[in-house]
## 1
Amino acid sequence: MLTGIQPSGDLHLGNYLGMVRQVLSFQETDDVYLMIADLHAQTVPYNPLEFKNRILDLGKSLLALGVDPKKLVFFRQSEIPEHLYLYWILGTLTPLGELTRMHQYKEKKERYEHVGIGAGILMYPVLMAADILLYQSDVVPVGEDQVQHVEITRELARKYNGAFGEAFKIPQELLIKETARVMSLDNPEKKMSKSLPEGNLPLFEQEQEIVQKIKSAVTDSGSEVIFNEREKQGIANLMVIYKELTGKTITDIEQEFKGVGYGVFKQAVVESFLSFFKDSRKKKENISDHQVLKVFEEGKEKAQSVARETLYIVLQQTGLK
Ligand code: ADP
Ligand code: TRP
């Protein structure tokens, strides 16, 4: 399996509950490729110096959370040029109309209208298809926002296999249903996102910031901690978070906070978060740049040998070799 994450901001609780924890569990038993999608992150404006640091920081965060380079292959997308080669070939097979209909394209096009965006954002799903197909992935652990991209990957794999010969496996997305879409704390109608820092909960943020963000999470005018996703979206989101961090059931949680109001519940969410991530937060402080770079170097070797094999078949089948 392969999955990726963009160095476009601080790693947050949505990333962890939607995707990272799937990786941590599958690395024990499966053949996992975990990639920092640095080329994808360059489809929106960025500052090069800051960007370089974000890549290292994301590497440290993931290692601190338990990503183990002895158990999986952890690498940077930009270090494997095969991704770009396959991206081009798949691009020639991709219907333009389909790319312009993607949710993410429409949303980002609007959000970045004032600065103007390049064609990278349109071609984004094609690069993601190349990432997935190069490693012959059967499954792709992701959050809900990426499902449409895995769907187009399947379509491109079938189209290519039909036209040139069976080069690719047909991949399937893998979601954790309850947490495939953790909502933003300041607007429970939007997904928690790296690019919307006001409402996200960065795992390695200062403690005071975390306390403040959870305590000021948008709820509703009521006071009962009961699960109702339609009418009490903010509370429902916090309840799911608390459930996942403590292992309690929704019914237990409703019982536990009966009659006490939102303030007490929010304090419990703060405590569950700080206790769940305590060890990782400590561990990150001791991981050096050098350590991360070494991990990427080893990952590059392993990833490239697989990517090369797939690309070689494609080059032969398409008449380039
Ligand atoms: P973001 O969308 O925050 O910028 P990425 O695009 O790098 O983060 O996503 C990395 C992984 O985390 C993807 O699998 C994505 O689907 C998942 N993910 C992102 N946000 C959430 C969320 N709010 N809830 C669940 N999963 C999420
Ligand atoms: N586009 C994904 C995201 O924003 C990151 C990503 C890049 C990815 N390549 C991938 C995820 C391949 C899964 C498989 O979350």
## 2
Amino acid sequence: MTDNTIASLEKEATSVENQFQSNVANITANPTPKSVDELRIAYLGRKGKVSALMEGMRHLAKEDRPAAGKAVNNLRQKVESAIEDLIIKANEWQLQQKLNQSPLDVTLPVKTQTNTGSLHPVTLMRRTLLREFRRLGFTVVDGPEVDLDFYNFSALNFKDDHPARDMQDTFFIDGRDKTVLRTHTSNIQIHAMLENSPPLRVVAPGRTYRCDSDLTHTPMFHQIEGFIVDERITMGDMKGVIDKFLKAIYGEDLSTRVRPSYFPFVEPGGEFDLQCVKCRGKGCRICSKTGWLEIGGMGMIHPNVFEAVSYDSEKYTGFAFGFGIDRLAMLKYGVTDLRLMFEGNKQFLSQFPIHS
Ligand code: DAH
């Protein structure tokens, strides 16, 4: 300041205000936090232009100070509020800058997960079967895959020279032919009957093994066994159960039938068929033109089996049935090559649903 009069101070204040306005005009279109802070320091900082004006007041005559103070304060408030506005704008600019750097488009569709698993067709069929059998009042049990000859054969009334015991069919897993990989799920009949007293209503799915491998057989396959033991159980009950679960799975319009057959552990024994799911009985390639598909074996439990588990065969009767799950799954899902069922090919498996 050149002299210490109020007039010169006011002039100086006007000049500071003009400079400030022009500085603001320069950055107002694009204020950055840095440029606004520089401006703040230049005017409001300890050595800033507004602070210098305050300082200059000390040299004024006492009576001039109130008026001068008012003018300088006025200017200070103007500068402060202008800078506050600029700070808000600068923060917005900074935020915008960040958003531009990492654009986040919340409207983009999410990436779909392409690698989720799905259920194996055998699992799907097993769950479907168990659901239907539970509905019919059956309890689900499990049994050993490695078992003694007693459970897999002798207690089921297989005579010592029965061909099923032959090395070609059965995987024996010790030298004395006493322990086998079960050849069917019928071994569970014996375990369940020894562990429980009648009445019994049981189904048991599981892996089974036979020394057999060609286009329609694999050394490991899946079966499900079912049986009921109670007083006055008849062939009619058996036909009813078989008819009910097959229709529940493949459709009410299909018929089922029972043919006589032989299995050592049932008498009388039979096999049950379902009308072809493909041609609905007309005859096609799937059913070899017969109109029928062979599903499994069944029969009234043999008194010798009851004897092996110490059930009173005078008091109790029962029926048993057993069949393969793999072929049912193939029929249900239209799979034509058995090998596909066990190759673990992801492309094949991914066609099946995640839920049953
Ligand atoms: N276990 C027989 C098989 O693997 C199937 C079977 C037939 C089971 C008759 C039964 C039955 O319970 O009564 O070929």
